[in-house]
Amino acid sequence: MTDDGPAGSDWFESVFAAQRVMVILRGFPPARTVELCTRAWDAGIAQVEVPVQSPDALPSLRAAIAAGRERDRGVGAGTVTTVQQLAEVAAAGVAFTVAPGLDDEVVRWSTERELPHLPGVSTPSEIQRAVRLGLTWVKAFPATVLGPSWFTAVRAPFPLVRLVATGGISAENAPAFLHAGARVVSLGSAVADPRQLEAVRSLIDRA
Question: Mind telling me which Gene3D superfamilies this protein's record contains (predicted)?
Answer without folding.
Answer: Aldolase class I (3.20.20.70)
